[in-house]
Structure formats: structure tokens, C-alpha cells
Amino acid sequence: QQMTEMTERLEHLKSEQKELKRSVNIHVQDQISDSERRQVQMMRHLRKVEKDREQIQKTVVDLEKKKQTHIKETWREVNTVFGEIFDELLPGGNSARLVPVGSDDNVMEG
Fold first, then answer.
1. Which of 4-8, 42-46, 101-105 has the lowest mean pLDDT?
2. For residue 105, which of 76, 64, 80 has the smallest C-alpha distance?
3. Residue 94 and residue 75 in contact, taking contact as beta carbons nearer than 8 Å
4. Sign of torsion, CA 19 20 24 29?
5. How far is CA 96 from each of CA 30, 43, 90, 101, rounded to the nearest angstrom?
6. What is the DSSP letter of 49?
7. CA 106 to CA 103: how far, in whole Å?
8. Is the dihedral of CA 74, 77, 80, 86 positive or negative?
9. What is the pLDDT of residues 23-62, one digit of tens each?
């Protein structure tokens, strides 16, 4: 009798399992693992992109400083040469200089 009960119970459990397979995604753990793995990869990629972004911003700031320095140097050189040429063309006259509008520190405004 006990064997019969066990057999019936086994059949009932198999049937229940079969029913559950229809309504429950048995691959959900694999899907979760895949999603977590993709999330980790994307977070790594995001950190790399943020690091690259910071480096690009630093480079832009450095290039802007260099540009300003070169513009000021060029301005001074042109101004000096312009004054020399003006002195040569008009001896004894006041030496002309280019004067930027605004502050002398920001040649780009002039």
C-alpha cells in the first residue's frame, strides 16, 4: 500500500512539475546571469568613457591655454614689426602700435 501511495505521489508531483513548466520560465536564472554580466560590462565601458571624457576635457583646456599664449606672442611680434615698419616709413614720427580694444590680456577681444 505504501508503494502505491508513493507511486501516486510521484505521478502527482510529475504532473505538477509539468504544469509548472508551462507557467514558470525555468531559464530565468540564466537570463538573470546574462543580464548581470552585461550590466558589469556596460559599467566598465561607462567608466572608461567617463575617464576618456575627462582626459579630452583636460586636453581641450590645455590646447585653449596654448592657443591664447600663441596668439598673445604673435600679437606682440606683429605689433613690434608693425611699429618698426611704421618708424621706417615715417621717420621722426610717433611710432604706431596696434592696441587691442579691451584689456591687453585678452587679445581675442580686440
1. 101-105
2. 76
3. no
4. negative
5. 80, 61, 10, 15
6. H
7. 6
8. negative
9. 777 677 788 899 999 999 999 999 999 999 999 999 999 9
Rounded to whole angstroms, the Cα distance separating 32 from 50 reads: 27
3-class secondary structure, 105: coil
Q: Which of 110, 109, 98, 105 is nearest to 72 (CA)?
A: 105
Longest CA–CA separation in the chain, Å: 132
Q: Which amino acid is at 22?
A: R
Q: Which pLDDT score, from 0 to 100, does residue 110 have? A: 46
Helices (H), ranges, 24-110 = 28-89
**pTM score, two decimals?**
0.54
Per the CB < 8 A criterion, the answer to whether 100 and 107 are in contact is yes
**Among residues of the chain, what percentage have pLDDT more than 90?**
45
